[in-house]
Amino acid sequence: MAHQQMPIWATEADIDEDVDLSLAIGNYGHGHFEDAPIQHPQLDETAMIAIQQHMAQQAAFSQIPDVVKAFIVRFHQAVLENNLEEITIAYESGWNKYTEKFYSRTEWPEAEIIAPLVNDDPIFLILYRELYYRHVYSRLQPNIDDRFHSYENSCELFNYLLNSDGPVKLELPEQWLWDIIDEFIYQYQVFCTWRSKVKNKTDDELVMLAEGGPVWSSYSVLNVLYSLMQKSKINEYIVATREGKSQEEIGEIVGEFGQRPLYRMLGYFSIIGLLRVHVLLGDFTLALKVMESVELNQKSPFTRVTACHVTTYYYVGFCYIMLRRYPDAIRTFVTILNFIMRMRQYHTRSYQYDQISKTADRMYALFAICNALSPSRLDDNIANIAKERFGEQYAKIARGGQEALSAFEELFLYACPKFITANPPPYEDNTAMTDLLAPADAADTAPPGYDATQRHLSLFLADIAAQLPVPTLRSFLKLYTSLDAKKLANFLDVDEEEMVQEMMVMKQASKSLSRVPGGGEITSLLDGRVITTSDLNFIIDENMVHITESTVGRRYAGWFIKNTERAQKIFDDLKHMPLPAPPASAANASSHRSTHPGAASGAIAASAATPAGTAKETTDAQAPAPRKVAWGGARA
Amino acid sequence: MDNTAASWITPPSRPELIENLVSGVDRYNPNNVGILEDYLYHQIRNEEYDCLANLAILKLYQFNPELYNPDVVINILIKALTASPLPDFNLCVSLLDERPVNAQLDEPDPLPTHLPILRGLNDLLFRCRFPAFWDIYRSDDLESLRDNYTVEVAGFDNAVRGVVVRAVKAAFTRISTARLGSYLALSGDDLAEYIAKLGWTIEPATSVVRVPPNPENQIEATVVQESIKLPQLAKVISHSVSKA
């Protein structure tokens, strides 16, 4: 790479002004850069700055290890050629490999530094910055410039995609497209959280926040997501696909943008992005409403990117909790947790494995919450894992009272999304800021109210507190078929009237809206009908309580189906195994094998389509064992 | 209340204009807040209720603090109270981002004082503490809430009674007149009239109210048997087909 330095220099000299300019007009308080050319129009000074910068860049450039330079060049080439396979390799392994090796604690070289390597390709530099900032956010501590610049870069990327005359030619792997949307929302969330903490901000930061304008504003984030959805006509696409329209018809409906996978997937991911943004902002109904056209099943396109799949279910499940639709939440979590468990063996190597398993842990906690509020036996396996992982909380909940409440609080705080406040504290208003900061000196907590999590937690806990006596009541009722209300109140040592009112709560808690599972027609996630969620039912006849219990008959089907499938699999595997050479006539058998190479390899590679003949021939030739003949014979 | 979510998502009384706002991107346009606020006052006068449309107002307030109108917020919360045990009230409060003391308002913001009161009332309704609800709601402390807000909400008392009726209907087959009266905050002729309007009957001898049978107060012990659906067997069947 060092040999190429001359031509690189040449190109670098050309763009120096560009670089300089972009630094100078970066409107984030680089006052002296801005002023210099205006107040002192001497060429010397600007030239000096340019030269200094040039030299600094050269120095930085020469610091880059050659392998990294080569990697960037190859990466760029792959993007230019829209070579998805190469891009995927560079994106999923190359980038992470060199991050581990050279940049685990420092930033990657800035885009301006590596620009000469990629002929200043503006698109690649935007993509590069996307990765650059993502690395800063995940491994390092972003400073305020990083926060503002990463926003700018995202805007540039989306502008490029949305405001070009026709669809851009760029192709990117689906995983990356998801990461772009995911990261965009993540950075927005981190920014809002950081912004809402008014203490410990430097004066510079306070000024920049006051003048920040639309940077990371909720409107601008929603705008991006909605624009991507509209540009790709994704909702129309989903509806048309569901209606079974032909490729041509769909192509016509979605237009030139929507036909391209890049736009279609970005549109799709934007819906999921909206789901997440609305949850972060505390709007749980709207979150589910934007998902209206998306089918929540394992065949949906969003399941192709596992991280997206997991995110979707997490947020949908959480919405259901806040809508007090615990059976729906349970079903959502069970589905995805089973999926994660099945896929675990493939994911341990993925660079996103950590993230996915963290989300899974949080979903076990949410499952524990739901299961306590609406006991069900949908999936004992998941229930056991949750119990194992959160045993302490399970025990506290079982004990009831204040302890149970604190266990719910722990689970909720551990597992809830990172809620944000839509609006900044009044950074632009000096007097309001002084007011805000003054009392905060006394108590070192954040000023009340700017913590959205506390607001959602208190609502949630109020719901829980209302239902706390239900389990105790239930355990008493379970012992009787009918019982005088006064007697029950005596057992519980509470006022009779209070207890009767509590029983109405219990009745309320034993039913819930629920989506109808497996009901052919497509319904939106908000839809549902009331179902009974408890196996214990009762009515009050003036002062007598009558109790009935529904029992579930023993279930056999699942066991038989599972074991039939298992037996079939073992059977298949057995059939496809090469037969062991009989120990007595080992030499004999090996000579057979060499004379029948086709038969042997046929047995090894036998697929479902392998004609019975091959296997049978092998059997006849090699295996005198009567068992093998038996299955060979069964087929004939 | 019917037993599906359909009329909650789209109340039959919702005009088309509002439907378009609620379901489209236009819901984010601050210029539409007036339309939605008018619709809220329409609901208040006509005993209608549209949770999603009201949430759309709160959403606009969330994003545009300068639109914030505390009276509207309080009215939305009052309407949401009587949707109990649905979570509407909580959904509304979830959208109320805290805001700095607003200097632009001419009068002190009434929300900070009213919000805890409303949350208390909501809690009592959700916990079916109906007698306590009426005691507190009618106490002197809540005079300001009654005189400035609920008095304008047509049929507020009856909407609360609607919550009571839903809870009683599910849990009781018979209930003493005194108990029902304490839940409804009615007595004497008013109570008798209300019960008659519900179509419930009072047993003359005992003066116990008979709640007509409905799916929720009819209980019977059942044994749930498993039912096997074809898709569960798909793997097993397809296996034997492909291997045959």
From TrEMBL, chain A:
Pfam families: Paf67 (PF10255). One of its GO terms (molecular function) is translation initiation factor activity. Residues 584-615 have a biased composition (Low complexity). GO terms for biological process: formation of cytoplasmic translation initiation complex. The keyword Nucleotide-binding does not apply. GO terms for cellular component: eukaryotic 43S preinitiation complex; eukaryotic 48S preinitiation complex; eukaryotic translation initiation factor 3 complex. Its main location: cytoplasm. InterPro entries: eIF3l (IPR019382). Keywords: Cytoplasm, Initiation factor, Protein biosynthesis. It is found in: Cytoplasm. The keyword Phosphoprotein does not apply. Residues 581-636 are annotated as: Disordered. Component of the eukaryotic translation initiation factor 3 (eIF-3) complex, which is involved in protein synthesis of a specialized repertoire of mRNAs and, together with other initiation factors, stimulates binding of mRNA and methionyl-tRNAi to the 40S ribosome. The eIF-3 complex specifically targets and initiates translation of a subset of mRNAs involved in cell proliferation. Component of the eukaryotic translation initiation factor 3 (eIF-3) complex. Belongs to the eIF-3 subunit L family. This is Eukaryotic translation initiation factor 3 subunit L. The lineage of its organism: Eukaryota, Fungi, Dikarya, Basidiomycota, Agaricomycotina.
TrEMBL record, chain B:
GO terms for cellular component: eukaryotic 43S preinitiation complex; eukaryotic 48S preinitiation complex; eukaryotic translation initiation factor 3 complex. SUPFAM superfamilies: ARM repeat, Winged helix' DNA-binding domain. Residues 49-227 form the PCI domain. Signal peptide: none annotated. One of its GO terms (molecular function) is translation initiation factor activity. One of its GO terms (biological process) is regulation of translational initiation. Gene3D superfamilies: ARM repeat, domain 1 (1.25.40.250), Winged helix-like DNA-binding domain superfamily/Winged helix DNA-binding domain (1.10.10.10). It is found in: Cytoplasm. InterPro entries: ARM-type_fold, CSN8_PSD8_EIF3K, eIF3k, PCI_dom, Transl_init_fac_sub12_N_euk, WH-like_DNA-bd_sf, WH_DNA-bd_sf. Keywords: Cytoplasm, Initiation factor, Protein biosynthesis. Belongs to the eIF-3 subunit K family. Component of the eukaryotic translation initiation factor 3 (eIF-3) complex, which is involved in protein synthesis of a specialized repertoire of mRNAs and, together with other initiation factors, stimulates binding of mRNA and methionyl-tRNAi to the 40S ribosome. The eIF-3 complex specifically targets and initiates translation of a subset of mRNAs involved in cell proliferation. Component of the eukaryotic translation initiation factor 3 (eIF-3) complex. This is Eukaryotic translation initiation factor 3 subunit K. It comes from Macrolepiota fuliginosa MF-IS2.
